[in-house]
Amino acid sequence: xATGHEAAANVPNAGEYVVHHLTQLNTTGHAQTSIVxxxxxxxxxxxxxxxxxxxxxxxxxxxxxxxxCGVPGRGQAALEILIEMVANQAKSxxxxxxxxxxxxxxxxxxxxxxxxxxxxxxxxxxxxxxxWQWLTGNPHAYLRVVPTADLNGTLGMSVSVLLLCFWxxxxxxxxxxxxxxxxxxxxxxxxxxxxxxxxxxxxxxLAKTVSHGMRLWGNMYAGELLFMLIALMGAAFGVSxxxxxPLLWLGQVLVGTGWALFHIFIVVLQAFIFMxxxxxxxxxxxxxx
Length: 289
What we know:
Blueprint: H1 4-10, H2 14-21, H3 43-65, H4 74-93, H5 97-119, H6 127-136, H7 151-184, H8 194-235, H9 244-285
């Protein structure tokens, strides 16, 4: 039978609590030692990304099925406003009408998908991790539920946008025309400038891709961390004496509510920014230097 000292030793401190919640469920079964590691697959990010993608498509399909020519319902009205907003943004950035037939629906899908993945941050911090630990019978099992708080996931999405940019560069300019642009822009068509031009183009592609993924990740990672710190205030309720415990619990409720309300703005804004940057980069692929 464990003594009181042994039981206390098994209770994680604040640092251990945060580190555990920031650790991914991956294919190695061990704690991830770096923020980004493409040598492993983060199974929780993959699962919740696919789940939110299916949910987003299902919700839009359900609304589309109930579309009427009369007075629209709230779901139809919201979807129509969203489609019109995305279509206007795509039209102002991507000037090829043929390309917009694919790019505009893609942008809509990206916005809804990223919004739903970001929204996983509103679930109670310990709810799904505790459920996962109970299902696996392992009190130390790892699970993270916000896919966009994983840099592997956001960089994967930004790399997908990069590949689309490559595709449209080749489709619009031709393979030879794009290669010519890589070596002659932005400094001019001169043999001595071929290498600097090419290096500048590669740096531009790399910078846009990395910043695209890291901007979304940084905001959602910070938001997830703040929710964990707020949860620790409530966790201290049971081990505090006097008025400290009730005040910490009250502080958790007030601060948590305030941060959740403000986080709604962050969740929507980051989904919009990611979608807009995808449109801008694809639009740039249609234009010559």
